[in-house]
Amino acid sequence: MNYNDEDKAIRNFIIIFLIVIVVAVGVFFFTKYVVNKETNTTEEVKEVEIDNSVAIVGTMLSKADKEYYVILYRSEDDNAYKYDSLKSKYPASGNSYPLYSVDLSNALNKKYYDKDNVNLKSDNVNDLRFGDITVLKVETGKITKSYDSVEKIKKVWNIEED
């Protein structure tokens, strides 16, 4: 092998070596500046709040309390503000039973809303149907009383008229 062939081989090696280095440096800077790099943004951590006063129809008869009320209505109803007012006035009325609420607009509860075929007399939860507003008094997992009008609920809960 003469010097020309050796010189060409060394020159080709150096050229290939430099190309590899340039590509490696290019990939490094590409990933550092062009590709989404990690940022030091602080994420706001929100504390999860569990509202134990909210229930679904399937579990409303199995609460830990021996006696309690369950108020059922659709939050999408035009009169929902009246029903919310009842809920907010209940604890102030002096009654001692816990109050749970069930939103019949919730996808888990929608099948239980049927204002034309109200059924509050079933032992099977799946057969129950509720109207626009219903309050149930539950004792040891059984519905003992039911009220389906704002006037009856106000009377039972001793809520004064506005």
Helix share bin: 25-40%
Structural class: alpha/beta
- Report Rg: 35 Å
Can you list the strand order of the major beta sheet? 1-3-2-4-5
Please state the overall shape, judged from the principal axes of the Cα atoms.
rod-shaped
Average pLDDT score: 83
Q: Indicate the proportion of strand residues.
A: 15-25%
Profile the largest sheet: 5 strands, mixed
Total of helices: 3
Number of strands: 5
Span between N and C termini?
Answer: 110 Å
The helix-strand sequence is HEEHEEEH
Low-confidence stretches: none
User: What oligomeric state best describes the polypeptide chains here?
Assistant: single chain
Secondary structure topology:
Layout: H1 3-34, E1 54-55, E2 67-73, H2 80-89, E3 99-103, E4 133-139, E5 142-147, H3 150-156
Parallel strand pairs: 1-3, 2-3
Antiparallel strand pairs: 2-4, 4-5
Report what the structure shows.
The chain is α/β, with parallel strands linked by helices. It is 30% helix and 17% strand. The longest helix is centred in the N-terminal third of the chain and has 32 residues, at 3-34. The model has no long low-confidence stretch (mean pLDDT 83).
Key terms for this structure?
rod-shaped, 3 helices
Short summary:
With 162 residues, the chain is α/β, with parallel strands linked by helices. Helices cover 30% and strands 17% of the residues.
